[in-house]
Amino acid sequence: MKIDKIVNEIAQENTYILSNSTFSLLIDPGSQPDKIIEKLKEINKPLAAILLTHAHFDHIMGLDTIKESHPQALVLLHESEKDWLTHPELNASTLMMGEPVTCKTTVDEYYTCNTPYNFSGLEFSVRPTPGHSPGGVSFVFKQEGIVFSGDALFSVSIGRTDLVGGNHEQLLQSIKQELFSLPDDCIVYPGHGPSTTIGKEKLYNPFF
To answer: Is the model's pTM score more than 0.85?
Structure first.
């Protein structure tokens, strides 16, 4: 599996494109959809799905544009945030940007956590990691030894918990239970900032 990372402009949010010889997956369509679409063209593999780790504005700003250019791609989200795509007061866009972000794209499927998914050989499971937001999830690719942690766990930091639905204690528990139970050499690809490993975060993350 190949991993391409795109750092978007509005909040330095990370978009990831995962691809094999057959298909691609996109994690968190950020604020520069044209940049993301160019990378998808370069990869030149059909986009099977758009996976949302959560629905804060910076992680969904490119959703409509990318869905329009790749209408076959399924959109997946946690059901706890089913209303966030259309409600700026929930996705924090009005608060953080001073203007609303809404999406006309509808969700095709809500995640079933701790259940395996397989998109033409791109295999992963979804772990619930709420706390930054109520429907936050992480994607574990066990075979590759990697996890996409959204805005739950960062390199020597964690997600903020002062937005709608945030809960600091819940986030700490989510990370301990769902992420720190992964192998120490598991590589963490977060929603912002550089990659890290589970072992490094156990040792050096000041929140633990």
So the answer is: yes
